[in-house]
Design brief:
CATH topology: TIM Barrel
Radius of gyration: 17 Å
Shape: globular
Bound molecules: SN-glycerol-1-phosphate
Number of domains: 1
CATH class: Alpha Beta
CATH architecture: Alpha-Beta Barrel
Low-confidence stretches: none
Strand order of the largest sheet: 1-2-3-4-5-6-7-8
């Protein structure tokens, strides 16, 4: 079993270092814009590229990953919106189960259909408990997943969902307010989840500023994902990277005593 990307994430978490993942939606880039994102990411020590989108209509994914790999050694991690978004060229696959929803197809159905192809791909597989949190307006992920997001003020639901996901064997928990969300996930909710799980916590959706990225890190995010804001303004990569890499977890909430 390949484990290089997961081990990299884990070793950073153990040292208390935060990671910055730049999300690339292959539908929203071309060779020129992608090269500029790669160059800025390389210069700014971005840790990971996440590749995917809720709905993919172009056939640019393989070429996009190959272009990234020809220019940098930053790992490419698939963040698939569906089971057709699998590319053998990537370094790893976030094997997402939508644990915040009650849509059986995204909890296990699509996994069953695609299992032989995923296994044959030779990709590093990272079992990931994926939780969609309300970000203030319906996002592509909430529509496409046909599931209710967790309300943004219900931190206990998020905490229990993440705990259950970890005990089911998920190696990462990914909390997502959805691409372009009005509001990123609150520090309170992140803190509550972070203090009740041991596995790395990924936070994304609606992060546009260094202050928002720092809030997520200080509350307990191990990986901060930014896509939309960078598509609009690639030069943000440098300041976001600096902010995330200099942040530390300011532990707040105590673990639940039962
Ligand atoms: C969405 O978590 C990602 O699935 C990133 O969201 O595009 O809003 O940065 P943004």
């Amino acid at each position: 079993m390949k484990q290089a990307v997961f081990n990299f994430i884990l070793s950073k978490k153990q040292k208390g270092e935060k990671l910055f993942a730049v999300l690339i939606d292959p539908d929203k880039v071309n060779d020129d814009s992608l090269v500029s994102i790669i160059e800025l990411s390389e210069k700014s020590s971005v840790d990971l590229f996440f590749i995917g989108g809720s709905l993919m209509v172009s056939d640019y994914m393989d070429k996009c990953i190959q272009l990234i790999q020809s220019k940098t050694s930053i790992p490419t991690v698939l963040f698939p919106g569906s089971n057709i978004q699998v590319s053998k060229y990537a370094d790893a696959l976030l094997y997402l189960s939508l644990i915040s929803g009650r849509n059986a197809d995204l909890l296990i159905g699509q996994h069953v259909v695609s299992a032989p192809f995923v296994k044959a791909s030779g990709l590093e597989i990272i079992p990931t408990g994926y939780m969609v949190i309300d970000g203030g307006h319906p996002t592509a992920v909430s529509y496409m997943s046909n599931s209710f997001p967790i309300p943004r003020d219900k931190k206990d639901i998020a905490m229990c969902t993440a705990m259950a996901g970890e005990m089911l064997g998920m190696k990462l928990i990914y909390m997502d307010a959805g691409s372009g969300a009005n509001y990123p996930i609150s520090g309170k909710m992140i803190g509550s989840v972070a203090s009740h799980i041991d596995c790395p916590l990924v936070i994304g959706g609606g992060i546009r500023t260094t202050a928002q990225a720092i809030e997520a890190c200080e509350a307990g995010a191990d990986i901060v994902v930014v896509g939309n804001a960078i598509e609009k303004e690639a030069s943000l990569i440098e300041e976001l990277s600096q902010a995330i890499h200099s942040s530390i977890h300011k532990k707040g909430e105590k673990a639940l005593q039962l």
